[in-house]
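Teaching assistant's notes for section 4

Start the section by putting this record on the projector. Ask students to predict, before seeing the second block, whether Exodeoxyribonuclease 7 small subunit will look compact or extended. Collect guesses on the board.
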Amino acid sequence: MAKAKTDDDTVADGTADAAQSDGSTLGYEQARDELIEVVRSLEAGGTTLEESLALWERGEALAKVCRRWLDGARARLDAALAEEAEEDEGEGGTGEGAAG
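Reveal the predicted structure now:
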Protein backbone atom coordinates (compact mmCIF):
# COMPACT_ATOMS: atom_id res chain seq x y z
CA MET A 1 0.00 0.00 0.00
CA ALA A 2 3.02 2.30 0.17
CA LYS A 3 2.92 2.51 -3.61
CA ALA A 4 -0.17 4.75 -3.73
CA LYS A 5 1.52 7.71 -5.40
CA THR A 6 0.27 9.90 -8.20
CA ASP A 7 2.32 10.73 -11.29
CA ASP A 8 2.94 14.21 -9.90
CA ASP A 9 4.29 12.80 -6.63
CA THR A 10 6.63 10.30 -8.21
CA VAL A 11 8.17 12.59 -10.79
CA ALA A 12 8.11 15.96 -9.08
CA ASP A 13 11.39 17.13 -10.62
CA GLY A 14 11.19 15.15 -13.85
CA THR A 15 13.70 12.51 -12.82
CA ALA A 16 12.68 11.03 -9.48
CA ASP A 17 11.45 7.64 -10.70
CA ALA A 18 14.10 7.11 -13.36
CA ALA A 19 16.91 8.10 -11.03
CA GLN A 20 15.93 5.88 -8.12
CA SER A 21 18.10 2.91 -9.13
CA ASP A 22 21.39 4.83 -9.21
CA GLY A 23 20.48 7.86 -7.13
CA SER A 24 21.53 10.39 -9.76
CA THR A 25 19.68 12.57 -12.23
CA LEU A 26 19.52 11.13 -15.72
CA GLY A 27 20.14 13.22 -18.78
CA TYR A 28 17.96 12.91 -21.85
CA GLU A 29 20.33 10.64 -23.75
CA GLN A 30 20.84 8.34 -20.76
CA ALA A 31 17.10 8.02 -20.17
CA ARG A 32 16.45 7.45 -23.89
CA ASP A 33 19.12 4.77 -24.16
CA GLU A 34 17.85 2.96 -21.08
CA LEU A 35 14.30 3.21 -22.38
CA ILE A 36 15.41 1.58 -25.64
CA GLU A 37 16.89 -1.31 -23.66
CA VAL A 38 13.72 -1.68 -21.60
CA VAL A 39 11.63 -1.85 -24.77
CA ARG A 40 13.98 -4.43 -26.28
CA SER A 41 13.73 -6.56 -23.15
CA LEU A 42 9.95 -6.40 -23.17
CA GLU A 43 9.77 -7.20 -26.88
CA ALA A 44 12.16 -10.14 -26.49
CA GLY A 45 9.90 -11.73 -23.89
CA GLY A 46 11.06 -14.58 -21.71
CA THR A 47 10.46 -12.66 -18.51
CA THR A 48 8.04 -13.39 -15.72
CA LEU A 49 4.95 -11.29 -15.23
CA GLU A 50 6.58 -9.54 -12.26
CA GLU A 51 9.73 -8.77 -14.28
CA SER A 52 7.65 -7.52 -17.20
CA LEU A 53 5.64 -5.23 -14.92
CA ALA A 54 8.82 -3.86 -13.36
CA LEU A 55 10.29 -3.22 -16.82
CA TRP A 56 7.10 -1.54 -17.95
CA GLU A 57 7.05 0.72 -14.87
CA ARG A 58 10.70 1.62 -15.44
CA GLY A 59 9.92 2.38 -19.07
CA GLU A 60 7.07 4.67 -18.09
CA ALA A 61 9.33 6.55 -15.68
CA LEU A 62 12.07 6.88 -18.30
CA ALA A 63 9.56 8.10 -20.87
CA LYS A 64 8.46 10.81 -18.43
CA VAL A 65 12.07 11.91 -17.99
CA CYS A 66 12.53 12.11 -21.75
CA ARG A 67 9.27 13.99 -22.17
CA ARG A 68 10.23 16.54 -19.50
CA TRP A 69 13.64 17.10 -21.11
CA LEU A 70 12.00 17.61 -24.50
CA ASP A 71 9.33 19.91 -23.06
CA GLY A 72 12.05 21.95 -21.37
CA ALA A 73 14.04 22.18 -24.59
CA ARG A 74 10.92 23.29 -26.47
CA ALA A 75 10.23 25.99 -23.87
CA ARG A 76 13.78 27.27 -24.14
CA LEU A 77 13.57 27.38 -27.94
CA ASP A 78 10.22 29.16 -27.82
CA ALA A 79 11.60 31.72 -25.37
CA ALA A 80 14.66 32.33 -27.53
CA LEU A 81 12.53 32.74 -30.66
CA ALA A 82 10.16 35.11 -28.84
CA GLU A 83 13.10 37.17 -27.62
CA GLU A 84 14.53 37.34 -31.13
CA ALA A 85 11.15 38.41 -32.51
CA GLU A 86 10.92 41.17 -29.89
CA GLU A 87 14.40 42.41 -30.81
CA ASP A 88 13.45 42.45 -34.49
CA GLU A 89 10.31 44.45 -33.70
CA GLY A 90 12.37 46.88 -31.64
CA GLU A 91 14.57 47.65 -34.65
CA GLY A 92 11.48 48.86 -36.50
CA GLY A 93 12.31 46.89 -39.61
CA THR A 94 15.49 48.90 -40.36
CA GLY A 95 17.48 45.71 -40.71
CA GLU A 96 15.35 44.28 -43.50
CA GLY A 97 16.58 44.97 -46.99
CA ALA A 98 19.47 47.13 -45.78
CA ALA A 99 22.08 44.49 -46.65
CA GLY A 100 20.90 44.09 -50.29
